[in-house]
Design brief:
The protein is of the alpha/beta class. The chain has eight helices and twelve strands.
Length: about 230
Amino acid sequence: MVKETEIDKNFFLEEVPKENPVIFDIGCYDGADSREFSHLFENPTIYAFEGDKRSVDLFNKLSEGDDNIKLVETVLSDTNGEVDWFSSDSDTKRHYEFQNSWSASSSLKEPDNHLNVFKEVSFSKASKVQSITLDSWMNNNPHIDFVDIIWADVNGGEEELLNGAEKTLQKTKFLYIEFNATQDKKLYSKCLTKEEIKNKLPHFEELGVYNFKGNFGNVLLRNKNEL
């Protein structure tokens, strides 16, 4: 199933028949997906991970007062410590009147074909931000023993995220993750194709591809193991 449109999140209502699922929104940007999940389920617990300070400020402004969402201010990768960070900006893609920058394409990977596909987006030279692996974060939060949905939008950092989340993914039911490459074109340097993501996750099966734009999109995966 390949669709140019976004996935209908009501799919998860049928597949996760519980009032209080645990959801990870990784690379949450402005919190739009977190808020949609918050309104979709009766009483979810949503952990929203974001490492770009500008996105954190935007998230806090738009998601204030939603007790279902817990913001975690960090990049998730395969490193516990500092990582390189390439901050994005655009004068034309800012969604809100109060925005004075645009951080939605920021990444721990250097931009590659992104500069050709989205000419209106620029990137700064690498700076340093704090990172943690998802497995390490889970070790620090032992009360979370199961994840119903991981919704990941990490702009080329898929390999690093997955490498740092091997144990967590064993107890995750659904993974919805962006991919940013084909074999010959990569939006970010050395980022993974959809097939490379799937090859790293043999215990997951593909259910569909969404927002497909030629060489990038999102793939929905489901854990094949009994959880």
